[in-house]
Amino acid sequence: MNQVSSSVSLKAPLLNEGEVDATRLVKKSRRNRAGVISQLFFAWVYGTIEIASKVTLENDMIEDLRFEDTSEQLYYRFMKQFEKRKNEKNGLIWSLISVSMGQCIFVFIVMLFNVGTSLINPLLIKWTIQYLMKEDKETQEGLILIFSIIGVRIISVICQQHSFYQIRTVGYDWMGILSMALLGKSMNVSYQSNKEHTSGQVLNYMQVDAMKLQWFGWYMSQIMLMPLQIGISIYMMFKFIGVAFLGGLGVILLTAIFNIFVGKKMMEYQIMMMKDKDKRTNCANEIFQQIKFIKVNAYEEYFRSKLTKLRNQEIKTLKTRFFASCLNILSVWLSPMLILNATFVIYVAIGNNLTPANTFAIISLFQSLQGPLLFLPMALNALIEANISFKRVQGFLLTKELMNDCITNSSQSQLDLQYQKGLTVNDSRTQINSQVMRTEIDDDVAIKIDQGTFYWSQYKEQPQQPAKAPTAKGQKVEPLPQIESDPILKNINLRIEKGQFVAIVGDVGSGKSSLIQAMLGEMIYKEDKPRIQINGSFAYVSQKAWIQNATVKENILFGLPFDQTKYDEAIKFSCLKEDIKILVKGDQTMIGEKGVNLSGGQKARVSLARAIYSNCDIYLLDDPISAVDVHVGKFIIYECLNGYLKDKTRILVTHALNYCQYTDYVYLMDNGTIAEQGTFADIKQSEQFKKVYQKFYKDVKNDEESQEQINDVEQLPVSELKLEKKQSSQKETPTAPQNKDEIDELMLLEDRNKGTISFEILATYIRLTGGVLFASFMVFMMLLWDGCYVGSSLWMAHWTQQASEDLANGVDTNNYFYLTIYSVLSLSYGILAFLRSWALVIVSCNQANNMHNKMVSCLMYAPQCQFFERVPLGRIMNRLTKDQNVLDSELQWTFNWMLVQVFLLLANTFLNIYTSSPWVAIPMVIYFFLCWKIQRVYMAASRELFRLEAISKSPILSYFSESIMGITTIRAFQRQSQIMNKHGNNQDLNRKIFLEQIAANAWFGLVLGLSSFMVNTTAIVFCMFYSTKNPAYAGLLMTYASTLDQNINGTVQCLGHVENGLISFERCVAYTKVKPEKGYEAAVKRYQNNQTYRDQYIPQWPKNGIIEYKNYSVQYREGLPLALKNMSIVINPREKIGIVGRTGAGKSTITLTILRILEGLNGQLLIDGHDISTISLRQLRESITMIMQDPTLFSGTIRDNIDPLNLRTDEEVLQAINKCCLTELIESRKGLESNINDHGDNLSAGEKQLVCIARAVLKKSPIVLIDEATANIDIDTEHKIQDTIQNAFSDCTVITIAHRINTILHCDKILVLDKGEVKEFGYTKDLLNQTNSLFYGIYQEALKEQSH
């Protein structure tokens, strides 16, 4: 097959390296302006810390990044490197390293100094003990030793903090680069034709995998330096004790082999865990994207159980993965003790006696080794995770891109667009060359396709293999052979002249939308390369409108400069003028995520306005007319497409065949081919077109019995026909400005607590993590662990002292007795560490799982309008991914390490006091108090920085997700650079907060480290000049005094890390307190306690389907106008009601009230005599069938989507499929097991709607609500579906909302709404006979339109 040479070129929209936005330019940051001393001690960040101690930090109080440090510039440099290295095995890693090479080298050098200081300590201890054992001590020599020890510690502290700060900076830069790279790559990947990576997986790559890479450099540098540190340590051991070091070396080798084995297992489990995490994240993302569908069908319990099962599998894998980590911890705590034991066994066996100088020098040496070895499991764990994440991300970055090398385009129009974005000519030409071939095209042609055969995938879906007996070990399982897929579009040849208005018509699944996608380069080809010639720029209006979470104006401008005249014209010709007038903030009103606060028609018209404003050459319109009212559709055809845009090339996909008469040329699609083409006058002579065209009028003609004179009646004035619009199905703001209360804003601000973590949060964490009983158990385990630690240390001091005395007295020491006791204590020390860690893993995983289930239970039953339409999906997913990941994988290890630090501090404090004097406790208490005071000042800044960082993270994910959903629209408008710039800005806001956070952390660590010298100096001076006569105790004091300040520092640092980790816990807890819908309170409470819940159902209700509104009013939110006002109507059993009204009149609100998506403000709504507010919410929604305007499908099989609860037999499902004209679809695939991709991307819009209708036919409830169900279906199929709906629901009460008048003419009664009020309600024929009725006017307008 012909592969695209640039399929892995990563030619995302290039970001400008030379042009600089002056408003964002920061030449030097505060860190760069600081002097040498300020930079050395991180004094430059104290300004932020001081501000945080006085007021609550906000984003604008933190200085912006330098221009060269912005995400855009880092990404630009990364792109250059990755282009060179993309074919290398670890090309991604080396490309990232190359971007930060200077910082990486600096870190490596600094860490070398740090390793050197840790290896000098044992020598200093040995020299100090030797000095103490001298009879004649020189004060000068003692002072030199004291200042040497202090000097080494100062260098060590400074090196530690600078290396940590730089490597964290590099890591976060890498994370930002990869986030940009993932979005940049997405700009060149079609998620419809590329099946290797789903959009949900890419979100996981950005949110989980890229985040894991921020620590890669730190752990890698530690691993790289470990061999050097171990090698020098072994050499020093040899110098201290000779060949006895071989015992320790043997244990080190055995430990290394054990760790390699465990590491392999960790990698296997990590891969499994990431796959499980992907499944759970994809499922959660899909659920909360389609939450409205889930709610109206009462599927919450089904999807909650589905997500819970995936989560349970993830937790099971997580525990297995962490068991391997605990084995690593066992190795780390046990191996130093085993090394010491093996070394001492051989040392004693060859006839040597232990001396305090050599013994405590070796212990100190192993203490310096213990740090890296203790760090080893975390480092191996992180590197394994990072390696897997690198492979996943690199796999996506190298995946196949758009196969658009078959497209040729004129260069000039593309360059003009790039100039508008501020790119240089060279950069623009580079981008264009990577995407299209620049050749000359006939000036008269807008689009030309020759020999166009296109596919959505390379291979057919593989059927599931039947279960077989397990194969023998090592036996190779042959994969099923891949079968070439069938073409979607076959031998397409078309030529569209510049300025032509072309219609593309055909049945559902005939290939109309696919033809548009092929023009945009979204589809793939195989051996026979088609040829597509494009002459001009595209404006694209998708079938399902893509709306950004921004203002109305920003959605229309879509990044272009504001031009008042063009803007006014775009508003006028998209019929948005009245909609904007009614908004309090006009076109500055925020549109919710995915346009949740707009009706389907309004979203389509905003999308059209965006296209009009773009002033492009070619307009691709994928059936936007189906979503709007008849009079609006007529205006768009007459005034917009045939008026304002008459000089543009317009390609309209439509099912409204009557509009074909206004076009210059018509293409009739059938089964992926162009069946007929020509002018409307020519094509309407064909039998195939006639057959479909005649059916368009069938329903209308059936109702014309008493309306023969209607064509002679003059059309009513528009002012009489026009029903005022409100701001949507929903959620409008008051018509008159009130106070600027937050309630007027659609999107809720993200919750942010301030100040310290509350005691309630800490108590909740302890309660969920085993409670007081488990906390007591952990304290008991730690006391045992401390006892073994202290006991082994004192026993070693006693042993060496006794050996020295025995040697002086010429008596043999019973070394094996001492060694046995020491071995028991030291080995118990390691085993207890393993048991403690494993116990904490078990309860922490259970706690994290419980928290996840509590969040999901609350979110699943949260109210649609008050919560889901006001909270972005990215914010929800941020809690379920990033914050949940902290609970899953980070917080437990942070608590574990905090316990170690606290109890090591207690143990070392005891050893210091016991081996010297109680007076040593005085500087320790002073230092600890100082640490606590500094920590309070630091935490005031750290907490708020952590919260700001977490909050600034949500817009990154939301915008990333939003951009992925609209990727085709973005590419069509050539707005890749704009999207990348915005994403970069979101990243930079987050990065500047994070970099300030780690700088504050480095300052804190440095201050603590330097102030710790009061403890070091006191202990060392006491040891030198006021020491006990026991040299072993002096050695013990020296050994542990050198680490005491590190223990205090580590304890205070860990307390800060735990507090920051608890912020994620706090954020998750907030989502366990989301108020559920009325009627679900008891269910949520029981689900949160892992209990089952069963509703009390009314037997055999509803039976008749009588719906009665009694003076019923409703509003979407407090402070908004009434959406329905004092409605009083009665719908009798089995009546068919059609609801009409202009966009936003309240039609969809009717369905929301019946389903209790909206709760009544006053009055009553009765169904079969029961007030629905007193009925089980689940029973209510289960008893009603809803066919929504936007088709909703989930990844899975067709059967799963038609019968989600698996309540029906295959025969019943097939009957529903046959009734809904889907038989041909499933026969051409794999039957009921045919796979459906995320959001049904492998089906046409009409096919998706048919699947949804089949689902409703199968459910068949006493009450059926249909909201624009056939908007995306061709007339032929619509006619069949209408017959099916009438027959299948003949004994049901049916309420239908439709834009096309013929879909409701069969109804018994018509309800006309205007601004939430009932204007007319009566029998259809009666209203048609009343020439002054509103419905008569609407019908007249539609009929006149069809007669043209």
TrEMBL record:
GO cellular component terms attached to this protein's record: membrane
- GO-annotated molecular function: ABC-type transporter activity; ATP binding; ATP hydrolysis activity
Q: Does the keyword Transmembrane helix apply?
A: yes
Question: Where is the secretion signal located?
Answer: none
Is Transmembrane one of the keywords? Answer: yes
Q: Domain named ABC transporter: which ranges?
A: 472-696, 1107-1340
Q: Which domain of life is it from?
A: Eukaryota
> Keywords of this protein's UniProt record, alphabetized?
ATP-binding, Membrane, Nucleotide-binding, Repeat, Transmembrane, Transmembrane helix, Transport
- Membrane topology reported for the UniProt record: Multi-pass membrane protein
Q: Where is this protein found?
A: Membrane
Q: Which residues cross the membrane?
A: 92-113, 142-159, 216-238, 244-263, 322-350, 362-384, 762-785, 816-835, 895-914, 920-938, 1002-1027
> Pfam families attached here?
ABC_membrane, ABC_tran
Q: Which residues form a coiled coil?
A: none
What positions does the domain ABC transmembrane type-1 occupy?
Answer: 105-385, 777-1046
Q: Could you tell me which PANTHER family the record lists for this protein?
A: ATP-BINDING CASSETTE SUB-FAMILY C, MULTIDRUG RESISTANCE-ASSOCIATED PROTEIN LETHAL(2)03659
Which family is this sequence assigned to?
Answer: Belongs to the ABC transporter superfamily. ABCC family. Conjugate transporter (TC 3.A.1.208) subfamily.
From the Swiss-Prot or TrEMBL record, give the protein name.
Uncharacterized protein
| Natural source organism | Paramecium primaurelia
